[in-house]
Amino acid sequence: MANSYKSKKIKLALFIVDAFTKQPFKGNSAAVCLIPYHQSIPSDVKQNIASEMNLSETAFIKILKEGDTFENSKRFALQWYTPTCEVGLCGHGTVASAAVLFSVCNNHSETLEFETTCGILTAKKLRNGNIQINLPAYESKTLVIEEYEDIIKAAVGSLPVQEILLSDSKNLIIHLHDDVTRAQLEQLKPRDSELLAAMSDIIGVAVTLKGLCKDDCLDSDWNSYDFMSRYFAPWFGVSEDPVCGSVHCALGPYWAKVLQKNVLSARQCSSRGGDLLLKVVYDRTLINGDAVIVVEGQINL
């Protein structure tokens, strides 16, 4: 297989999609690579492609059945790679993949199904143009703040912390005190080296803040966000994930309990920024978001 791969010149369709935004160059960028049924791309080559793209994630969609196409198939295989490794779940990469299949490939399936390392994920296009993805819901366990002072200091400095938790997905959640402002959240500049030195057995740190009843926590339609966050994942080669869908699989269920509501409006406050609408239903997190395709091309191997 390796020799066959190296002996042929391969061209694959490649796209860059900005997810969880209506505007180009906002939200979170993902590269999306389409792999036909007959084509086999080794994992090390996928990793090289992701490193070349140098985005938080690159998604690889592969046709599963002979005779299927990107236009008519309902089910695909889906993998995601950061610039340094493969990851088990990626929300914005799933939104981006669905956007390419719906908008570029003209797939008319009501619901797309993706076979992934974390099970079957689905995506559908809503009437308002949003894409809704169906992801797991992760529970979180409260930790003792005093036992995690190093990672707290590395992530948020001296900002007051209300609660700290560890999700089943191994994300550390730092809930800042309600007196902290959105501006203070946006001004955080944690260093990768300090985060990595403070804690090793997690996949990322989500810093989150209640958004209700604050003048600086309104969306473009003047509706209040329920909560805001930023997400740092140097453990996977991503200093800051601009708008991370998968971490909202933990943030959504957490804030649903805190606020006693299962439909939540969320803002991720990176420099690019993005909006997510969440619905927590039992053990699932439904995430709605926009997507903009900004680059269409091909990669030559």
UniProtKB/TrEMBL annotation:
<dbReference type="GO" id="GO:0005737">
    <property type="term" value="C:cytoplasm"/>
</dbReference>
<feature type="active site">
    <location>
        <position position="57"/>
    </location>
</feature>
<dbReference type="Pfam" id="PF02567">
    <property type="entry name" value="PhzC-PhzF"/>
</dbReference>
<protein>
    <submittedName>
        <fullName>Phenazine biosynthesis-like domain-containing protein 1</fullName>
    </submittedName>
</protein>
<dbReference type="InterPro" id="IPR003719">
    <property type="entry name" value="Phenazine_PhzF-like"/>
</dbReference>
<comment type="similarity">
    <text>Belongs to the PhzF family.</text>
</comment>
<keyword id="KW-0413">Isomerase</keyword>
<dbReference type="GO" id="GO:0016853">
    <property type="term" value="F:isomerase activity"/>
</dbReference>
